[in-house]
Amino acid sequence: MIPPDHPRYRSLLVRERLAWFADQGVVSPEGLAAHGRGEAFDYLLGERTTGSALLAERTAAAMLLAARHPVISVNGNTAALAAREIHDLQRATRAVVEVNLFHRSPERIQKVTRLLEGHGVDVLDGDEERLIPVSHDREWSHRDGAAAADAILVPLEDGDRAEALVSMGKKVIAIDLNPLSRTARAATLTIVDEVTRAIPEITRAAGDLTAGECEKLISRVDNSYFLHAALDEIARRLSHALD
Amino acid sequence: MIPPDHPRYRSLLVRERLAWFADQGVVSPEGLAAHGRGEAFDYLLGERTTGSALLAERTAAAMLLAARHPVISVNGNTAALAAREIHDLQRATRAVVEVNLFHRSPERIQKVTRLLEGHGVDVLDGDEERLIPVSHDREWSHRDGAAAADAILVPLEDGDRAEALVSMGKKVIAIDLNPLSRTARAATLTIVDEVTRAIPEITRAAGDLTAGECEKLISRVDNSYFLHAALDEIARRLSHALD
User: What number is the ipTM of this complex?
Assistant: First the structure.
């Protein structure tokens, strides 16, 4: 349907993939729109991992390795785009993986869980309770999931829940292409990068870092630096965009 | 499902509306993602009509009024978001309205057509031919539609087709929130504004402009100015975004 000579072929293919997962009930329709928002920011960043994003990814690895109870919170889009990458990161960090959906239904939770398990991810199951103080369905967590985390990786997070998790005293690591989003501002550390590029870099760093390097990276976490670096990169690219 | 106290309530409601139209088969899943891209740029522009966009809207009205055979090309997203606004613009400019879909099927064409007709739009029907030189389904046009236009308004256009229409010698008026898109660069005139804000402004200007004002606006069309003005606005807002 999409001709290979179309200049935005790759981006359109990823959209088709998400559209297929939407058809399967893994991705919500609103998740497709959220993906498009991310596409726009990725486009402005040059669709590559910047130097500051790579540093954020190494810092994220250090925070997950140093945590007592690291958790990875996965939604529909993340599962559709990066189930295999989540598996590799879980192996490298021994993190608990929990499914958490904005547009929640028992069927969607089951579908996202099955997709992850199909890629070898060990997904937390059992009863959930309303443990996160937000006014929508993302309040649900297992006792051993987000509620118990000291460090939590939230790819593609909602701003409300990011703020709630921070207010609970957790170290929140966001992956968000929009450096101005509430999630990006609220998080302890924001990785401004595309999720399928970001997660493998965290995994790679988790296999590389020494204990001393981890300590140094953690002692220097400065979210404001990472947000400004991303904005500067966008502004720099915009100023040359029509040359 | 979305709580009214959510800070992005309005944006999420519009997404829900599009998701509903996707469920009805009017909007394609890829259209939802494309909407998200637009949302991100609108956010960067402050979700309002800038001064330069308003000038572009008045210029678009002048071009449609001066045309011998003005056409408005409507896709699924435009119909879902702005069917009533298209009706008003058609009345003000006596333009031909034609449905043209990237993800084309006879059923979707019928659904989009019915939605427009339900809002009083007079939609071109009858046989279509492969009249626009692009390598995908947007090549189809009626003899009296895009193929015959001297000026054509293309809200939310694909870059390929925008370039093809320009290469056919037509005056192409794009509505595109991304000032760097191929559509925005290829068009004769680009309105960098959200479609439900842009179309009523074109309609209003079409009712206001004198023949002398139209002539003056048309003589000064400079697409590069409008693209630079939008980029400058984004850069200006980014530089203060984290203050």
Answer: 0.74
